[in-house]
Specification:
- This protein is mainly α.
- It folds into 2 domains: 2-73, no CATH class; 91-310, MetI-like (MetI-like fold, Orthogonal Bundle).
- Helix content is 75%, strand content 0%.
């Protein structure tokens, strides 16, 4: 297992470098380029040349790329164009804990709700419970997060006043754990909705396939209770396809949370990405793109490791 993890990590290095080349090329090809943010339109040609020399923007593209990658390997993603002098790494580290907290809570919430309902739906196929879970799942998949978030804000924040409209805590108030949880409930629930719906459908399909296997029939013929058959013999094999979904949920740290964080004014990486895209803060955009790629690699690696844990037949 250790040698497999090392091999997968080494194989990911050229992949990540390929992503850096692609993202850097896209940024360079963008209308106006990085200089459009920094340069004053009224700047004289002489001052423009000095400006480009100062930031190394007059160097060939491959030289700029090598310099950027060299700094990135050392953990230096440059400084923000919007907030000149503020390191990009510092901006990311300030937002990362909020995104990790939101994604962790939403993932746990989605799994503790979706998996039990998916199993119960598979145990009673085509029943009222199954139809109810199916309809609810389809609604969850079809409902846009931004619309659902706005509806919850209107109902539970503006009309009922049960929850705050956004942010991570009450401004100018002392630290309170309940205050943080209070602000976390709505965005975490909205973010969990889509994952919850997909997990429910995958769990139902996987468990229905497992419950028709021969070894399950053998366990039933021995007189075991249905609940024991499902818990002891069915769930472990039924969870193998769910691991794939879990591995793909990790990369959504940035992309998947972007809309939800923006709706609820949650200061995380997703909102930082949207702000940087609108303000053309290219160093931040490139750093977040690379970070997303790292999350994809880590997510797939975690999924492979969990495969071996849940299925002893898999060996690396």
């Amino acid at each position: 297992m250790v040698s497999y993890i090392i091999r997968r990590t080494l194989m990911a290095i050229p992949l990540l470098f390929g992503i850096t080349i692609l993202s850097f090329a896209i940024i360079q090809a963008a209308p106006g380029g990085p200089t459009a943010v920094l340069m004053d339109p009224t700047m004289s040609p002489e001052n423009r040349i000095k400006f480009e020399e100062k930031y190394g923007l007059n160097d060939p593209v491959h030289v700029q790329y090598i310099r950027w990658v060299g700094n990135m390997v050392q953990g230096d993603f440059g400084t923000s164009l919007l907030r000149q002098g503020v390191p990009v790494t510092e901006m990311i580290m300030n937002r990362l804990p909020n995104t990790v907290l939101l994604m962790l809570v939403s993932t746990i919430l989605a799994m503790i709700i979706a998996i039990p309902f998916g199993i119960m739906s598979a145990m009673r196929p085509y029943s009222k419970l199954d139809y109810g879970v199916t309809v609810t799942s389809f609604l969850g998949v079809a409902t846009p997060n931004f619309w659902f978030g706005l509806i919850l804000i209107i109902i539970f924040s503006l009309q009922l006043g049960w929850f705050p409209t956004g942010g991570t805590h009450t401004m100018n108030a002392p630290f309170s754990l309940w205050d943080r949880i209070h602000h976390l409930i709505l965005p975490a629930f909205v973010l969990a909705t889509a994952d919850m719906a997909a997990l429910t459908r995958y769990t139902r399909s996987s468990m229905m396939e497992v419950l028709h296997q021969d070894y399950i029939r053998t366990a039933r013929s021995k007189g075991f209770k249905e609940s024991k058959v499902v818990i002891k013999h069915g769930i472990r094999n039924g969870m193998i396809p769910i691991i794939t979904i879990f591995g793909l949920m990790l990369p959504s740290f940035i992309g998947g949370a972007a809309i939800t964080e923006n709706v609820f004014s949650w200061p995380g990486l997703g909102r930082l990405f949207i702000e940087s895209a609108f303000n053309r803060d290219y160093p931040v955009i490139m750093a977040l793109t690379v970070l997303s790629a790292v999350f994809v690699v880590i997510g797939n690696l975690i999924a492979d490791i969990l495969y071996a844990i849940f299925d002893p037949r898999i060996e690396y």
